[in-house]
Amino acid sequence: MSSDAVKGLLAGYLGGRVPAERLVPAVAAEYYRTVDRRTREMLRPIMEVIERAAPGVGQLARTEGGAGFDIRLAERPFPSSDQDALRQAVASALAEVSESPPVPASAPGLLARLVRVVRRLFSASP
Questions:
Q1: How many CB atoms are closer than 10 A to CB 117?
Q2: Can you give the pLDDT of all 126 residues of the chain as single tens digits?
Q3: Cα separation of 22 and 15, whole Å?
Q4: Which H or E element spans position 50?
Q5: What is the DSSP letter of 69?
Q6: Are 46 and 93 spatial neighbours (Cβ–Cβ below 8 Å)?
Q7: Measured at the alpha carbon of residue 22, what is the angle toward residues 21 and 23, in degrees to the nearest 5?
Q8: Which of 29, 108, 109, 118 is the most buried (most CB within 10 A)?
Q9: Cβ contacts of 118 within 8 Å, gap of 6 or more
Q10: Which domain holds residue 90?
Q11: CA-to-CA distance for 43 and 30, rounded, in angstroms?
């Protein structure tokens, strides 16, 4: 799931189109799966509410044929008494994301610049 898909899911929850039962596992899965620091930071306050309301959303499971553990989502309903706290966390996360400046595009790398130069050499007419 991409960062834009997560934002769409969060906006859908605030708009009443996505129930908490669908939001909670999707946010937890993205939080534990992603390596993008910005996405994890955006989801951290939401995960704190989820863990407080329904502890143990993520559970460790033994991996097949190897050492280590895999994180799996536990099937637990989200308590309706904590819906307001979840809604506030989602709203603040979306507000924070919309206020943050866009990440500037990085300059092309060495390989991209070399390819561009070679293309110019071969496309030049005599």
A1: 9
A2: 567 788 888 999 998 998 888 888 888 888 888 888 888 898 999 989 988 887 666 666 666 766 666 666 666 677 888 889 999 999 998 888 766 555 555 566 788 888 888 888 887 655
A3: 14
A4: helix 37-53
A5: E
A6: yes
A7: 95
A8: 29
A9: none
A10: 3-123
A11: 9
Backbone angles phi, psi at 58, to 5 degrees: -100, 135
Q: Are 74 and 56 in contact (CB under 8 A)?
A: yes
Q: Which helix (H) or strand (E) holds 24?
A: helix 20-33
Query: For the chain, what's the residue count?
Result: 126
The Cα–Cα gap between 6 and 45 comes to: 14
Q: Other CB atoms closer than 10 Å to residue 88's CB: what's the count? A: 13
Task: Tell me how crowded residue 40 is: count the other CB atoms within 10 A of its CB.
Answer: 15
- Rounded to the nearest 10°, the torsion over CA 27, 28, 29, 35 is 90
Q: Tell me how many domains the chain contains.
A: 1
Residue type, 7: K
